[in-house]
Amino acid sequence: MNEMRYDWLSDRWVIFAPNRLMRPDDYDRSPRCEHDSSGHCPFCSGSEHETPDATLILPGSDTDATTSNRAVDLQRLQRKPWLVRVVPNKFPAVNASMPVDASPCEESRHPESRTQQQECGPSDLFQRRQTQGAHEVIIESPDHISSITGLTPQHAALVFEAYRRRLNHWRAHSNMRYAVVFKNYGADAGASLIHSHSQLICTDFVPNDILRIENRMAQYHRTHQRCYVCDVLEHEIQSGQRIVSESEHFVAICPFASRFPFSVSILPRRHRSMYEACSDDEIQDLSRMAQLILRALEQEHPRAAYNYVIQSCSFESASPESFHWRLKIIPRMCKVAGFEWGSDCFINTVTPEEAAVSLRKRCVSSTTHRVPVEGVPVEGVPIEGARVEEFSVPRSALQSNPSDSPFRICSGNPAATPRPSSTPHPETPSHATTNN
Questions:
Q1: pLDDT at 81
Q2: What pLDDT does residue 18 have?
Q3: Which of 70, 244, 426, 434 has its CB surrounded by the most CB atoms within 10 Å?
Q4: Could you read off the pLDDT of 12-56 as tens digits, one per residue?
Q5: Which DSSP state fits 12?
């Protein structure tokens, strides 16, 4: 059980997890050096015994391995080939253990209720509570590749399908209140292992920053009877200045007031509050767009680390109809320095308009794309006999007939693409500020 401590002045809870210092680390932390220092990887095929039992294996089972006959299912699935594997984190930031004598009271189970308290007395100066949750690792390939861009589109879609299944799994737990999927790519983004993977953390509380965002979304919805993100998306498509790419279901933009250079938000055209409510077609479309944008970023800044985060509404949101989920890509090309720490006001050295132009060019400028064959990594340890297929996409073809591609590259012409409806879809809620 990990401990949380409350900073009343900043209205922020902090999780303390000293056990995470014991994580293995592939990265040489000397300046500008990133390589596998051990030569051994616990995430590669053949090392399954070094991780906890899998909670999901794709492909291999039609159901989540945690749903029924768990012991039998796990023994059977562990012996089957896999492309994506989800396991509990061996060094969790939060875990599910709860001491018998540590049952939290209702107030401590919902620490965000403190945001409603304006007074603080001597007894409130050093608040602490136990927290529980889950911390999982999504291993994205049995092969030792460093980036999700090295996967085939079909394989990458399995990664995003694993996100959907695990989020749905944790949303069904009555004692859990929030979950976030995220990726740390590169040492500067917090990664400790090179092998391409992402993570999911689920908690029994809603972080205060998420609550504030949900509240602002709800306030906008109450005032205008419209979704904030839908309105932003409508204006962004009209302008075209900050759009990086568009597809049938998604639009990628560089947010108007992004805090970090080259930040990108991928927003669903359809008003949805939860990523896990995506259809199969939307999952495949999103995985293709995420690969497109990440590949463009890796080409534009080959040594840049980045994070991406999927933000859905909390499990017990008071107004889910106002929430619009998003995938945020946050490059880590600059350090957060003294002014930012002292003021919480960020200095961005690249305007989103300039960033969008550069990334748009990267999405279409290369006339030859390297496409990994299923099961053959493009990046990482070379494999003898590995094949890489190539196909040509003339720039003129993409510009003159964008329907030939699943993606439309915005030229700044507001008439180039249809505008999304800003009326909330009846099936879903919404939220998400588009500023990173």
A1: 78
A2: 67
A3: 244
A4: 666 676 665 666 655 554 433 344 455 789 999 999 999 999 999
A5: E
Side chain identity, residue 379: E
Task: Say which residues have a Cβ less than 8 Å from residue 1's Cβ, sequence separation at least 6.
Answer: 95, 97, 98, 99, 102, 130, 131, 132
Q: Which residues pair with 260 in a beta bridge?
A: none
**In contact, 5 and 128? CB cutoff 8 Å:** yes
Q: How far apart are alpha carbons 26 and 197 in whole angstroms?
A: 13
State both tokens at 330.
């946050």
Say which residue the tokens 């400028």 belong to: 365
Sign of the Cα pseudo-torsion (168, 174, 178, 182, in order): negative
Domains belonging to the chain, first-starting first, are: 1-11+40-436 (3.30.428.10)
Task: Provide the total of helices (H) and of strands (E) in the chain, helices listed first.
Answer: 9, 16
Q: Is the pLDDT of residue 423 over 70?
A: no
Q: Using the CB atoms, write b or e for 63-92: b if 16+ within 10 Å.
A: ebbeeeeeeebbeebbeeebbbbbbbbbeb
For residue 216, the one-letter residue type is R
Tens of pLDDT, residue by residue over 168-197, are 999 999 899 999 999 999 998 988 899 999
